[in-house]
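pinging the channel bc i need a second pair of eyes. not urgent but kinda urgent?? the chain im working w is below, pasted from the shared doc
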Amino acid sequence: MFRQMLRSKIHRATVTESCLDYEGSLTIDEDLMEAAGILPYEAIVCSNLNNGERFMTYAVAGKRGEGEIILNGPTARKGAVRDQIIIFCYEYYSDEEIKRHVPKIVQVDGMNRIVAGKPKR
């Protein structure tokens, strides 16, 4: 049996832009995606701390080091610039894998700079 578990999350990211005239998705700074192990076009779930909205979309890589978190297309209706969101990524694990699994938690400051959970290089 496989269970869907949290693989990683980016905690309290700040929305930097909203672009309704885009085909859809959430643009995320490439540094944050790498730290959380999120790939371009991977499914993500977002939860908006300011308005309670929860939505599913896919990740698009933003400019590395710019702190971009951009609501694109229909997701632009789910929040506003300066809202704080949590970005979740899930994966299926076997019962054996779950015993060793620890999700990656990437914490960021108000400028979307990593303050905890940065990968070691």
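so The CA atoms of residues 22 and 73 lie 5 Å apart. and The chain is about 10% helix and 50% strand. — does that match what u expected or am i reading it wrong
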